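Sequence in, structure out. Go.
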Amino acid sequence: METQPHSSHKPAKGIFERFSSVVTKATGSSAAFLTALATVIIWAITGPVFGYSENWQLVINTGTTIITFLMVFLIQKAQNKEAMSVQLKLNELIAATKGASNRLVSVEDLTEEELCVLQQHYQTLAEITQKASDLRKSHSVEEAIKDASEKLEAESGLGHEVKA
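Output:
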């Protein structure tokens, strides 16, 4: 499979994409967790000062509800992008692997029923393989190097040699 040359020019990200990337990275940090923990501790400590009033309770309830509501959409956007990236990488591996079924490229677009049929096919294949081979055996590093060398040689026709 031939690939197109990579361009050094990246398309500009939209404002929401940039914002969601920054926020999801920031909120997944230790500093974000510690900030949230400190907020809850401060809120709890101020309970006696405000007599554990309904307004005091409303502050934390409203704040966490709003933050949670907004984060759901940011996290979903990040997960969608991540899932698409992983799917594209898997599609590339399938397309580039000799002997792999190209029918599985874009398998995520199949119906649930079609996915169940494929899953049953691979379950049967796994059962047959388990009966035919010893699962405790693994490929050696040398076999992996040999396979990589053969793949490079086949791609370029130059006979690359990978050394351990």
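Check: The chain has five helices and no strands. The chain has a mean pLDDT of 83.
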